[in-house]
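Example record

The entry below shows one chain as it appears in the dataset: sequence first, then structure tokens.
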Amino acid sequence: MRGRLKEIVDKYMSAVNVSKYCTKCLDTRRWNGSVVLMVVDAAFTSVGLNYFTAVVPKVREFRDRYVLNGEVSTLAKLAEAEEKLLSIWRNRRSVKAATQIAKALLEFGGDDRAAIRNWAEKAKLEEWRSDAVGRIKGVGINTFQYLRMMGGVDTVMPDKIVKRVINGILVRAGEEPVKGDIPFIRRVHEIAKLTGYRPIELCWMTWLVEEKDGVIKAKKYISLLDEI
């Protein structure tokens, strides 16, 4: 079964080239290295709207209106930018989450990049609900894991797309799917070891392929990844 699992995963991974994007994520270099935009991205993504058609355009708009000109260029400024965020994104819950995440990360010291990386290194998956970021209203396990990934932790988000694709692969390989979030994350880490890929690569792969036969789903959006 392990051989079958690797064979199927290899087929999916060959359909997309995610390595450089994953490395950029782990290096905390997404969004041209702006931790402000990484936090805004994570907070907006938490609503569950389409990432490429709904979230990315709004994060870009926030960048163009407030980040590039220096108005909201640091986590300290983001922590006080609720009204500016609301001018771009009407979901008050995720806007509040963005400002609260910024405040929480500031407690971990250093510049913005150091702060998110310091937090991510110390944050523990099993204790995510009591974590400084995880306990913020509007931050679920997916947002928690997404921020950890951008803070340098090689892991996976247990969102519905990732679960659907990975569990589909497991079923095809004759293995049992995994439902619970933390058990699922652990299972993906096991699959990564067995197949020779990083957990983050398996995660990103699922966002860029259809579940069936590894057919590229987001090909028209891949060019965006160089920007974000």
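Notes for this example: Residues 2 and 52 are 34 Å apart (CA to CA). The mean pLDDT is 93.
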